[in-house]
Amino acid sequence: MRNRFWASLIVAILVVGCGGSAEQSGDAVLRVYASLPLRGSTGADGRDAADGARLALADAGEEAGGVAIEAVVLDDTGGPDPGWTPERAAANARAAAQDSTAIAYLGDFESGATRASLPVTNEARLLHVSPASAAVDLVAPFPGTDQVPETQPSGQRSFGRVIPADDVQAAAAARWAVDLGWRAAAVESDGTPFGRRLADAFSIAAERIGLDLRRDARLAYLAGTAPVSGGEAIGSDAYLATGGPRPARVTSAALDPSQLPTAGRRFAAEFEGEFGRPPGRYAAYGYEAMALILDSIERASNPLDRTAVIDAFFETSGRDSVLGTYSIDELGDTSLDRVTGYELGAGRPEPAVELSAAG
Known about the structure:
alpha/beta, Rossmann fold, 2 domains, 6-stranded mixed sheet
């Protein structure tokens, strides 16, 4: 691994005042904070995203907008049972908000963790880009509205993501059911906010494409981590992080590395060469989250001004990337809508099909 990765990783944080612009003294340096799970059940995915971000920074020459950029990678897990905690996610966000050299924030991985960190970064006017948090309520109170959600309490948007939202994944699952020849499906939710939103999005998509919803249907869509009965079922990527019973098929909002476009496959080869392991599903999304942050700094009217960097982010259009060509809409969502359908056997999940919410 290149030494410059670790030279740019800051593990001791000096907390100073916050403001609307990044302040510098001596050699010009800006910091991009990253908050990801480095332990626990999602630790491998979080480390992949972190290493992808480091690789993007190295590929950019560790600068953007004529200013040197450093990465501050923080762990959002804590406690005796390693896993993200809202307290740790919020503390990481406060560390970034109070650092006057901070220009952007990359994270978190879980949508719940982002709900804890986003209000802090939003009040501090830090661009906040997630590689994996796909919950609809992070960008809008509910689907179909352009209102700013409570998770962005300043009333001004500062958050976006490079991964399709949960409603896109659920709609792709409905398309997959039709492609497999099913004419009806039952919808079963685990009752969590995540499960309810997936269930609603699947139902809306099913109605649009002519998939009947019946409680007695032989195919079930399992929203969240609803119990697996053993019958025919399609679930979400929540099952990929659990060790219990899983349905035979699941969707993943993150594309399998084998399904990335040409630029993404080049990235996968570079990642394996640098880190000595093939990238997991979220490595390319960590890479692109950092690359988009750097591009926003590069395009900003003033790379030292947090608001200018946010404005540049929301102006992203027709961006060529390791994930494909996409734009960022007014809510902060990516226009990418491709997801992976996996078949689960006794061994490693196998990517079976590339899906799209649009068909």
